[in-house]
Amino acid sequence: MSSPPAKRIKVDVEQEACSTTGEHKQENTTLPWGEHCVGITEFVNASIPGFTGIIKHRYTDFLVNEIDEEGQVVHLTDFSLPKSTPLEPPKEEVPLLSLEESVSNLTDLLGNAETPLEIQKLFESKEEEPQHVFIEAIDDKEKRTKIHQFFKNAFDRKLVTEASDGRIKVRYVAEGVDRRDRKFQRKRNDWNVAEGDFCRFVLHKENKDTMEAVNMLSKVMKMSSKIFSYAGTKDKRGVTAQWVTAYHVKPERLLGLNKRLRGMQLGNFGYCKNKLDLGDLKGNRFSIVLRDVTVDSQEIIDQAVTTIKDKGFINYFGMQRFGSSGAPTHTIGKAMLLGQWEQAVDLILMPREGESGDIAEARKAWAEHHDPKKALEVFPRKCVAETHILSAFAKSGQQRDFLGAIKMIPRNLRMMYVHAYQSYVWNHMVSQRIQLYGSDRPVVGDLVLANESELRELEEADVSEDGDEESGHVAVKVLTEDDLPQYTIYDVVLPLPGFDVVYPENEIGGKYNQLMSQDGLDPRDMRRNVKEFSLPGSYRKFMAKPENVSWQTLKYTDADASLAQTDLDRLAGIQEPAGVPDGDHLALRVAFSLSSSQYATMALREILKTETTGSFHLALSQKANQPQI
């Protein structure tokens, strides 16, 4: 039996209008911006009534703890320093010789008094004449070695030796050590840890995204952000914990930063041999509080959460993938795929509906004057794409090389736009799949992976360091009638459009053509003249099923009361809030684990049956007279 038709949710929040694509276009062309604009329309079980609850009223209502490759949930639990084994045992310090001892011992070593006196004069001259002294050629290699070694602890280490045309040249160096020597020694000896070249630590952050946190660390430490690496980026509005690796950074130094950092703490220090790469994780553990819940009965809540526990939810790409209504990321990506570089630049730079503050003023300044240098002065640094485009215009002195300006945007960010278009298509196709065939079982023509371990989601990690989109062909099987008993709906995948994927051999295959042709694109022709925008495509599971699902309701009175326990709370001995039995408000506390490419907001959407856009929940907060904090 197929799933019932999707329940349409009426959005009562005033938002910008958007044009929908495909079959929905005939239904309504001026619907407010929301999930339907990016293909998010269906539910696994639409028969369960929806209810309202505010997502992320406080950023502490959204806790995210990384699950590492060993399946361990990452928590900040201590600030102790690790023990290490030195690669080489420390050498005993040899005491410096006095000037008198230096001259006397050198005289004995050379077997003459004249050269040591010249060297003494060099030492006392401090780079005045003579600038160097030669020790004449010595045939005995062992003796030459002894002479070089001698100067390392003589003459206050301000004289250095080097071979020169068979002789030994003695020079004066003001700081006591050859600068070239010092640079070499620093590279060799500063890191002396047998356990590996990397310090691994837990980054616990509040209300800032991972890149912002890492940039803050590198700025405080006056080091390049490239020394830090991590398995995945965590969103800004929440409290998150994840592993980070740092190349040749001592844990003592990182620990010392905790007193200076705001909204961040570092701990659980250790050493490892390899750095983290994007994708080196199993997923994330979410602990989420939904506030000001309005529902007819506890039974509805229990049924809704039980649905995602037992059946899962539709594995849509969440709204954060698509940005804001003013210039959704997928529309910028579509322009790039069409080679409409000027339009892509305009979508990134020009004014947007609904924006205010510094960014709105900066866009207005650009639209009025088209002066990249002046615009750069007012655009906030956090507007990465905008500032890189404007910098390209300012440096080149002309504003017509739109592709060149786009290429100045950091690669992961510019590829995010075209990936967003793929995600937009995928969302629409999964909704079409449910409308045609339901969400409870595979059908003939569906796709499953030939080898489950080969699944590669469309993530930033799919972009190789040499700048090419990785193809990594994944084999899939097209289901026949005989295959159906061997597979479940959780095996079914749908392709993200590209030149190296197979499309379903049922009605959904044709739906890709119908949707993308309206945008002037062909799902089977995704190669481009600009190589980096040639998309091989990949596959994504149709359904997502969370693990270790738990939930409870609690009442509270203070609208801004803390209702979650962070790692820092736990370290401080603060117990998890228990609520107030006779409180005026109801909250739902839900926890679950997801794979790395799955969106918690889409699980919440299946529970609530309401929009998950930030503007929708901001409006709910305002309606309840609870400004977001």
Automatic annotation (TrEMBL):
UniProt KW Ribonucleoprotein keyword: no
GO CC, alphabetical: nucleus
Keywords attached to this entry: Isomerase, tRNA processing
Domain TRUD as annotated: residue spans: 312-545
Similarity comment: family membership: Belongs to the pseudouridine synthase TruD family.
Name of the protein this chain belongs to: tRNA pseudouridine synthase D
BP-aspect Gene Ontology terms: pseudouridine synthesis; tRNA processing
Lineage, opening ranks: Eukaryota, Fungi, Fungi incertae sedis, Zoopagomycota, Entomophthoromycotina
Record-level Gene Ontology MF annotations: pseudouridine synthase activity; RNA binding
UniProt-listed HAMAP family: TruD (MF_01082)
One Pfam family from the record: TruD
InterPro entries for this protein: PsdUridine_synth_cat_dom_sf (IPR020103), PsdUridine_synth_TruD (IPR001656), PsdUridine_synth_TruD_CS (IPR020119), PsdUridine_synth_TruD_insert (IPR011760), TruD_catalytic (IPR042214)
Cited Gene3D superfamilies: TruD, catalytic domain
CDD domains, per the entry: PseudoU_synth_ScPUS7 (cd02576)
The keyword Amino-acid biosynthesis appears for this protein: no
